[in-house]
Structures are given as structure tokens and as C-alpha cells.
Amino acid sequence: MHRLQSIAARSLMAGALDPCPALAAPGPGRRPSRAGLRRYNASGAPAAAVAAARSGKAREKTLTMETLNPQVKAVEYAVRGPIVIKAGEIERILQEGGKKPFTEVIKANIGDAHAMGQQPITFLRQVVALCTFPELLDSPSFPEDAKRRAQRILQGCGGRSLGSYSASPGVDCIRQDIAAYIEQRDQGVPSNWENIFLTTGASDGIVSMLRLLVSGEGCARTGVMIPIPQYPLYSAAIAEMGAVQVNYYLDEDNCWALDVHELHRSYQAAKQHCQPRVLCIINPGNPTGQVQSKKCIEDVLHFAYEENLFVMADEVYQENVYAPDCEFHSFKKVLYEMGPEYFNSVELASFHSTSKGYTGECGFRGGFMEIINLDPEVKAQLVKLLSVRLCPPVAGQAAMDVIVNPPQPDEPSFTQFHKEKASVLGALADKAKLTEQILSAVPGIKCNPVQGAMYAFPQIFIPPRAVEEAKALGMQPDMLYCLRLLEETGICVVPGSGFGQREGTYHFRMTILPSPEKLKVLLEKVRDFHIKFLKEYSALEEPQCRVQA
After folding, report:
1. CB 370 within 8 A of CB 196
2. Which of 399, 420, 483, 456 is nearest to 201 (CA)?
3. What is the rounded CA–CA span in Å between residue 252 and residue 241?
4. I need a labelling partner for 367 at 20 to 30 A (CA). Which of 36, 76, 282, 530 fits?
5. By percentage, how much of the chain surpasses pLDDT 70?
């Protein structure tokens, strides 16, 4: 009896809470409401929809270009923009037997090392394989130092499985290994593992920090200072968040050095329409390939200290330094050496990644950021924000651990690991030099030394007639140049306008990652195309590259 009363009560409540009682199935002896009959036909489709279909009118879409978030429309990402889409179309034509003046598309548009033929580092793949399939821990085919690292990582994972979620900031033992790596890299500068946050590549960390930093309206809106040329992640994130992009220009005539006087100029100009609060640095540079000197970094940090700016140091290419007279200096180490007044007050976030360096493991989407001098309450907000995306890929975290905890000289894998690492970095250094040498010898091309990173950013002379033609077609002159280069040679590079450049100058970005043989072919094709391009547009004047002061 009590059970029947309970069922009856639940039925009454269900009826009371039914948001559309007219749509409920009629009971015995009840006729359906006329409202229900008017709204739906026998097939169950709304009558209005059936009438619209009969009249040929399509139902209006909720999401259109008119209703799309305008900040999304403002986002541009040249590295995978129109040129790359066109390259994909040409690749499909070639695969289907179509004819072009070339047999393959050489994609030099993005820093994807393995796609360009670079081989994985054996030790890294061994550790990740062991973590992914722990049964291999019993195999004699794997070295003991790889097994020890895999066992330690698995002990930090829920259920000893790489398939479990980690804590939102990352696996604790991996964060501890990163802190130890930073202390060793910076020659004893202390690192607290609780200030380390694993990320989905460095990009995820950069965007997360910008989300914390962007606020205000009108003249109080956050201004984000970024180098020009810049990596388009920054301009895209700034546009998406509705922040204010504040450009400061690198000195092309001085090998893309960062001039603190330019920082002051940019900052003072921006204060008229926004509140600059963030200073972004990319060192070594992307797309420009420069390595900042210690003195330059000191000047930048002093400027940030004086103007109370939050510093974001993108250091994903810290292993990629090729010029013999250049050395990587971390912003954190330089800040520490400037003394406690600076080290204990300047807010600094530094970023690293599995995607670059000598490993080139882009697909693992591994990375980390270290943040110092963050307000404790803000730090709690950061943890909350990171928890929304649950955790970074745990396999990427494992790959990151191997990078910061490589084989030591007394371990069995050291010899092979050291040989593979030296081979990758040595080849990149040779290709950086080759790129500069060939491009700088071409009339109308000026290429600064590629001191580090993975790219060259040569300035190209584009004749006035070609500039006018591009304007008539509604595109940037360097976009016209790069499209012609792709269509005539199969080489895919990115127009400099996608990264930003001084008015009246034109560039393209290309990666130095292809094999030496393919890179030489690529550079020779660029040389021949450029000379043909100049002749076609009747460049009567001496084709000198021009840089405005």
C-alpha cells in the first residue's frame, strides 16, 4: 500500500513539473489538446516546419556570420592560413595525377620537425612506450634507465596508468623533475615545483596566462606588448579576448635585436588608449631567429620593473642556439642575478615545450610554465581556470619529463642519447648557416643570420608594379609573392604580413627543418623564382631591400 502511494505521489509530481503537458500522451477517455494537434502533424514534425519545407523556405540558422562572436572573426593565424590551404589543394591535385611544374609540395611553413623527416629521440620514445604499455617493463629490449623513469612516472599516475587524469597542474613527480631541471639550467637559482604547471604545449599556458591578465574596458582595457614580427598565437589570442595589441618593433638592421628605447616609445604611445600590463618576449625569436643578449634581457626586465609589467617569456627554443657567439640566458636567471629587489617583485611566467628543441615532439602537445611572484589568491584562480580543462595530456607530460630528465653520463642510454641530440642540433646549425648564405646572395633578398630557433625571416624586395597588382587583387604584396612561389615551385612559406612587419617592407618565414638535400633544392628554387619575379615586373632600379627607420 505504501509503495502504491509513493508511485502515485511521484506521478502527480511528474505531471506538475511537466513543462509541456499538452504534449503528454492522452490517457484513456482523454482527447489530445487542440494546441498539440495544431503544432504537430502525423509524422511528429512541427507543422510550421512542414509548411516551410513545402513553400521552399529553409529554416534560418542560429549561428551565422552575422551572429558569430566578432572576436572570433578577428582571429587570424597565418601559419595555417590561406597559403597552407592552397598548398593542400595542390597536393590533392598531384595525388590524383594532376600536372604541375613540380612533383611535390615542400611545406616550409611550420616548425613540425617530424613531418619534415626528423627522427624521434630513441630514449624519449622508449620511456613513453613503457608508460603506455607497462607490460614492456619486463622486456629485455628496453634499457634499465628508461624503465626506472617509466616506473616513477606511472607511480605518480592514478591506477598506475597513463590513461588516468592527472591533477590539473600536472603529475607531481614530473613537476618536481622540471623544477630540478630549471635549477640545474640556471646554475642553482631556486625553483619551487609548486610554481610549475604542465600545459598542452606552450600555447595553452600562454593563452591561460593572458586570460588572467586581460580585463577592463575602454582606456582601462589591458594592453599586451608583443614583438613585431611576432608568432601569430599572440595576436590571435589578443583578438579573441578583445585585448589591445601593443606593437614594439625589433631592429632588423641589428639582427632583430630588442631595443629598450623602442619599448619605451611603444609603451608611452599605448597609454593614450589602453593600460599596458603585459610584456611578451620570444627568445630565441620566432619568426626572426635572433638570440637576445644578457644585457638586452637586463634592460627589458628593468623596464618591466619600472613600468610594473607582467613579463611572459616564451623560451621554447632554448635548446636551439646555433651561432657560436650567442648563448641562451633564461629571463628567470637574469632576473635573479639583478638582485632581490627585482627577483622578489617582477611577475614572470616562462614557457617551454616538447615541440621544439632537439626532440620536435609536436604531436604529444607537452609543455610547462613556471610562474614566479604571483599573488597567492591569483594563483588559486589560475588553478581553478586550469581545472576547467581537467589536465594536459598525460602522455605529453611523460614526454616533457624525459626532456628535463635525460640520461646521465653514468647511465646505459647516455651515449646513444647524446649522439642523437648532437646530430639533430648540429644538422640544424648547418642548415641555419646554409639558409643565410644562399638567400643573402640573391639580389633583392636580405637574410639576417639565423642565430637560433628554426626559421629564417628574409626581407624581399617587391617591385612597385607587383605591389600595385597585389593591391588591385585586394591582397598584401608578400601574399601575392608567396602564392606565386607556391603555384610555380611547390614551395609553401608564410607571408611576413602574417607576423607583422614595418610599413613598406616585405618578408616571408620559412623553416630550416627540411633535410639538407631538400633544403638546398628549396633555397635554389626560391633564388630562381625571385630573380624571375624581378624580371617579370621589370625592376629597373637596383633591387635593394629597404628598411624604414
Report:
1. yes
2. 399
3. 30
4. 76
5. 86
Q: Is the pLDDT of residue 403 over 80?
A: yes
What CA–CA distance (Å, rounded) separates 178 from 398? 11
First CA to last CA distance, the chain: 92
Nearest CA-CA partner of 316 in 278, 262, 370, 266? 370
Distance, CA of 243 to chain centre? 18
In this structure, which amino acid lies at residue 215? S
The Cα-based distances of 108 to 24, 99, 363, 515 in angstroms read 61, 21, 18, 11
Q: How confident is the model at residue 4 (pLDDT cuts 50, 70, 90)?
A: very low
Q: Can you tell me the distance from the alpha carbon of 110 to that of 91, in angstroms, rounded to the nearest whole number?
A: 16
CA neighbours within 13 Å on the CB side: how many for 73? 8
Confidence of residue 80 (pLDDT cuts 50, 70, 90): low
Report CA-CA distances (Å) from 481 to 51, 94, 296, 469, 518.
Answer: 52, 22, 34, 11, 21
Q: What is the pLDDT of residue 182?
A: 98
| 436 CB-near residues (< 8 Å, 6+ apart) | 447, 448, 449, 450, 456
- The set of residues, in sequence order, having a beta carbon less than 8 Å from that of 386 and lying 6+ positions away, is 168, 169, 197, 208
Residues in the chain: 549
For residues 393 and 367, the answer to whether their CB atoms sit within 8 Å is no
Cα distances (angstroms) measured from residue 11 to each of 1, 20, 145, 244, 548:
15, 15, 65, 57, 79
**Cα 299 to Cα 258, 262, 279, 294, 409, distances in angstroms:** 9, 12, 13, 9, 37
Record the pTM: 0.84
Find how far residue 415's CA is from the centre of its chain.
Answer: 32
Question: The cell 620559412 sits on which residue?
Answer: 510
CA-based nearest residue to 386, from 212, 516, 522: 212
Q: Are 499 and 229 in contact (CB under 8 A)?
A: yes
The residues that bridge with 224 in the sheet, in sequence order, are: 245, 278
Q: Cell numbers at residue 95, please?
A: 595525388
Distance between CA atoms of 514 and 231, rounded to whole angstroms? 20
Cell of 152: 616513477
Q: Which residues contact 87 (CB under 8 A, 6 or more apart)?
A: 105, 107, 109, 486, 492
13 forms beta bridges with none
> Whole-angstrom Cα distance, residue 405 to residue 156?
16
Query: Which of 542, 543, 432, 531 is closest to 488 using CA atoms?
Result: 531
Helix (H, G, I), strand (E, B) or coil at 230: coil
pLDDT at 17: 43
Q: What is the mean pLDDT of the chain?
A: 88
Residue 431: helix, strand or coil by DSSP?
helix
The three cell numbers of residue 279 are 610584456
- The grid coordinates of residue 463 equal 617591385
